[in-house]
Amino acid sequence: MNAFSRTYRNKLWLALIALAGLYSCKDEVLPKPEAQLRLDYSFPKYKPYVGPCPYTFDINSEAVVKVTSDCGLEINYPKMKATIYLSYKSVSNNIDLLLRDAQKLTYKHVIKADDITEQPFLNNNDKVYGMFYEVNGNAATNGQFYATDSLRHFIDGSVYFYAKPNFDSLLPAAAYVKNDMRRLLETLRWERGVEATSPKIALPAEKKTQL
Question: What are the Cα distances from residue 14, in Å, to 17, 27, 185?
Answer without folding.
Answer: 5, 20, 71
